[in-house]
Specification:
- The protein is α/β, with parallel strands linked by helices.
- Strand 10, helix 10 and strand 11 form a beta-alpha-beta unit.
- The longest helix is centred in the C-terminal third of the chain and has 21 residues.
- The termini are far apart.
- The relative contact order is 0.11.
Length: about 350
């Protein structure tokens, strides 16, 4: 593949010159270069903030000054984003943030099978007819790879890391490609101390608002009219976990969300529904268990019992993998610090 940009490496003249690098990147397509830099160069401003470099755009060129490692990370991030623009994708601030995270991870020499040598990044991606999603953190990269190769994947960690969203996207991709016949999305009917019985309406009216996040993710991947047809035809099923009992789920992509709120019996029941040519993803946050006090989380137990079993992969997300508003990451980190301090003071385990 021909390079999409050219760079001229020059020394930075002035105090501390030996510690600074100056490069000029030239992008061939002026229109794409404008999209790459962002409105009022907002994407370059984000690079400056994240990497501590100085970026100056002139037409289809950008000068980058800073520490050698940071300048190289900025170059890799911009090259990757430009390639995405060339393929017809749109990019925004979150995409820039993700490219920076992956460029830094490459320098940290993390074990990432999707990172190529020679300074180029090839991030894992999930493609549906409606959109293409690229990994935004090293853990998302590993998670998307695991979903592609393993029959059962546990994705655990805090809110905002993309666990459920990516699992639904992968399921939609499998359905569109004809690799499965249907998608089954489910959740245990326990959340934040509320029970479905207290909600007004019939069963569907009670369940739909509770399962709304799964619907939202589906509509992001598949046109609304196709989702409605698939729901009517049974090619997509969204239901509480209790509806899974006694069934065998074959030729299906099956996702159990909020799995930390399953009991041990519910989790065993769900996992043993796995049929031929089926893929399962189990997502949850072990630090957010809403079960009655003293009741063990089926998710925590399953990860312990199944540790080391062939073709089962567990991917653990952390606060640094949060891809929502930056404040969400700060909130998660603050709660994690507090939990660690409380656990140290009491000697009690964090996971139930």
């Amino acid at each position: 593949m021909p390079r999409n940009s050219s760079s001229d490496l020059k020394p930075h003249v002035g105090p501390g010159a030996s510690d600074m690098t100056h490069i000029v990147l030239t992008f061939e397509d002026n229109r794409l270069a404008s999209a790459l830099f962002g409105q009022f160069d907002e994407h370059l401003a984000l690079l400056e903030q994240k990497l501590g470099v100085d970026c100056r755009a002139r037409g289809n060129k950008v000068e980058i000054r800073g520490a050698p490692s940071a300048v190289e990370q900025a170059r890799r991030a911009l090259d990757h984003l430009y390639e995405r623009l060339q393929r017809g994708s749109e990019i925004g601030g979150k995409d820039v943030d993700g490219a920076v995270r992956m460029a830094i991870a490459q320098d940290d020499q993390l074990y990432l099978p999707t990172l190529e040598k020679k300074g180029r990044m090839a991030l894992a991606q999930i493609s549906t007819r409606k959109k293409t999603i690229h990994a935004r953190t090293p853990t998302q990269d590993a998670y998307m790879r695991a979903l592609d190769r393993a029959e059962l994947v546990f994705g655990v960690g805090p809110a905002g890391t993309g666990k459920t969203y990516l699992a639904v996207a992968h399921a939609a991709q499998l359905l569109e490609r004809g690799q499965v016949d249907r998608i089954v999305l489910t959740r245990p009917a326990v959340e934040a101390g509320e029970r479905l019985g207290f909600l007004p309406g019939d069963m569907k009216e009670k369940v739909d608002p509770y399962l709304r996040p799964l619907y939202d993710a589906l509509y992001d991947m598949i046109p609304a009219e196709k989702v409605e047809r698939a729901l009517t035809a049974g090619a997509i099923e969204i239901a509480p976990l209790a509806f899974m009992r006694g069934r065998t789920l074959a030729n299906a992509a099956v996702i159990l969300d909020e799995a930390q709120n399953t009991t041990s019996m519910q989790m065993k029941m769900f996992l043993t529904r796995l049929g031929e040519n089926a893929r399962m993803a189990v997502t949850g946050d072990p630090s957010q268990v809403d079960l009655p006090p003293g009741q063990k989380s089926g998710l925590v137990e399953a990860m312990r019992v199944l540790d080391g079993v062939a073709n089962i992969v567990t991917v653990r997300f952390e606060a640094k993998d949060v891809v929502r508003h930056p404040m969400v990451q700060a909130i998660v980190e603050a709660y994690e610090r507090d939990a660690t301090e409380q656990r140290g003071a009491s000697g009690a385990p964090l996971d139930r």
